[in-house]
Amino acid sequence: MSKIKLGFSALLTLILLGMFAALASAEGFTATPSNPAPGINVGTIDNNGDANQHRTHGNFQNNTNSCGNCHSAHNGSNETLLKFQNSEPDMCLSCHDGTMGFYNVKTASGAGIFNSTHESASMHDVGKGIQIGSAPGAYANKSVGELECSSCHNPHGSVNDRLLSESVIGVSYSGLTKGTKSINLELKEDPAYADINNSSTMSGLKITTSVGPKGNTDKVNYAKFCGACHDDYLGSSGAPNHTNHYGHTTNSSSAGRNCASCHYAHGTDITMLKDTQGKTIADYVNGGWTQEKAEAYMKDVSVNSKGVKTSSLKKYTNMAVCWTCHQSSHAIDTQQPEDKYLTDGVDRYGNPIKLFKGKSDIR
């Protein structure tokens, strides 16, 4: 009897040791070309026999192993055989939380940030059970679907940059035939990943940063992309919405007149908000302000129609989002904070900026 008890004790000890070893291994995970993230297994030889990696989204190789990164053939958690039981964003964030090393949606980027820990934070709350048809500015949009990452992105690939879907909630926003690229983003190689970008074994794969839609047609189509859900906000100059109220022009090819001029697609927080000079908290701290003073200055105190404070995914804090474009050709009578930061040059649309008695004057 004692031998049996001893045997069970030894077995239990081995099981516990194995569990602790597995946990320790996960915590000390080191990415490799064939296993770039925990549980993500890819090949290293492409269709041409060259050393490479399987691509997870689109342009799949003929010997792809990428399907298994998200799907389980016999043990899926839902009808689409997804591996992850909690939510679609959990699946996406298994890589895009920084684990893969790039395209981390929890850090600042041209698309904004998914973050709820900082002040003045607001975002597209994917995976929170929000009904798409409840979007601000929704009128014709009656979708009862839940807002997810795939509401805007196609995980299986897209002709548009950043896997932007060719249609949103079933609406072809550009009016173009399927498979026609309708949105070009202004992409530049990310200097933080120069080694990867300069590698000869990546078959042209480049890690890039984006600052938004590129040309005038792209800006209009980008606004229509957002307008598929926020349809009442998709307005031309001088055109009323369905209630005969007027809103800011969003559907225009003119510089600055599209959704991406004022808003981030993913979200914003106090670390990303700017003032009318394009300065962030970090800029003011580097200029000598304390962190507390800079945060108090940049804090967004806007209130929506329901009386709730929200920064509304804005790029610029408070009504600086208006002032940054609508600065008068006359001298600004109010003193801008820390005028010592102003220099002769151009604004973000290329308009000349001249100093006038210590104040910015766009002429």
From TrEMBL:
Keyword RNA-binding listed: no
Organism: Neobacillus mesonae
Lineage: superkingdom: Bacteria
Pfam families in the record: Paired_CXXCH_1 (PF09699)
The entry's keywords: Signal
Signal peptide region: 1-24
NCBIfam families referenced in this protein's UniProt entry, alphabetically: paired_CXXCH_1
SUPFAM superfamilies: Multiheme cytochromes
Gene3D superfamilies: Flavocytochrome C3, Chain A
Residue ranges annotated for the Doubled CXXCH motif domain, each copy included: 60-100, 144-167
Name by which UniProt lists this protein: Doubled CXXCH motif domain-containing protein
